[in-house]
Amino acid sequence: MLLTNEQLNGLKGRLVVSAQAYPGEPMRDPRTMAQVAQSAVLGGAAAVRVQGLADIQHARSAVEVPVIGLFKDGHEGVFITPTLHHALAVAQAGAHIVALDGTRRDRPDGRSLRETIAVIHEKTGAMVMADCGSLDDALAAVDAGADVLGTTLAGYTGERPKTDGPDLELIEQIAAEGTGRMLIAEGRIHTPAQAASALSAGADSVVVGTAITHPTSITSWFVDALPTTD
């Protein structure tokens, strides 16, 4: 089932939860991630964001909210759904929205972002979320036909400094452009207050992942905060 514009607009002012685990971790299992996604929805998540084809398939069966899907190939450069092949596979696995690298960097398959988005729309009907790292990325993604803009890569492409929390300045810049696209804040949002700040800065919705669904990181935050003894 394809996502309608009305359903997309239903995400405004609400929380999206990213349910992902890293390779080699105990929770790195599609069934576990689907259960995490279910738990997030029970807590009020309006949509979920998941990585990997099996995770997307399991999440589609487990929840009735929109699924934002992606495929990570590598850890550096353009690695979030980096090629058209990856994007089509994500859509065919059941993602309502295909999240991909929406920066102006060269894509591994040599295709332009515009061409990639056009084929996704034509062949699958899925919407596209462009994960951007700067204002120029966001504007280029709008021109390329992206349905949703994300600040996912802010601080990771060399164009902007890596902020301690969400890049509120970038959110404000994109919102001020009045692109007509949904703007989703993502990246380093670790507290409810930071999520609220992202909305106040102009984001339509907020994605939170690590602070909700990654117990290894959350545990380390507490461990690091405790006083050490010699």
Could you please describe the fold and organization of this structure?
With 230 residues, this protein is an alpha/beta fold. The chain has a single domain, classed as TIM Barrel. Helix content is 40%, strand content 16%. Strands 1-2-3-4-5-6-7-8 form an eight-stranded parallel barrel, surrounded by seven helices. The termini are far apart. The model has no long low-confidence stretch (mean pLDDT 97).
Short description, anyone?
The chain is of the alpha/beta class and 230 residues long. It has one domain: TIM Barrel (Alpha-Beta Barrel).
SSE topology sketch:
Elements: H1 5-9, E1 15-19, H2 30-42, E2 47-51, H3 53-62, E3 67-70, H4 84-92, E4 97-101, H5 113-124, E5 127-131, H6 135-144, E6 148-150, H7 168-176, E7 182-186, H8 192-200, E8 205-208, H9 210-213, H10 215-225
Parallel strand pairs: 1-2, 1-8, 2-3, 3-4, 4-5, 5-6, 6-7, 7-8
Helix pairs in contact: 2-3, 4-5
